[in-house]
Amino acid sequence: MMNRRIFGRLMQAGALVLAGGLGLAGAAAADTVKVGIIGPFSGPFALQGKNFQAGVEAWLAQNGKSVAGHDVEIVYRDLPAANPQQARALAQELIVRDKVQYLGGVYFTPDAMAITPLLKQGNVPLVIFNAATSAIMTSSPLVVRTSFTTAQTTTPLGKAVVDRGVRKFVTAVTDYGPGVDAEIAFKKAVEAAGGQVVETIRMPLNTTEFSPIMQRIRDAGAQGVFAFLPSGPPTLGFVKSFNDTGLKQGGVKLFATGDLTQESDLPALGEAASGMITGFHYAVSHDSDANRRFVAAAEKAIGGPGQLSFPAVGAYDGMYVIAKMIAATGGKQDAEKAVEAVKGLAWESPRGPVRIDPETRHITQTIYLREVAKDDKGHWINKEIQSFPEQADPGLAK
Question: Which of 52, 107, 175, 355 is the most exposed place for a label (fewest CB within 10 A)?
Answer without folding.
Answer: 175
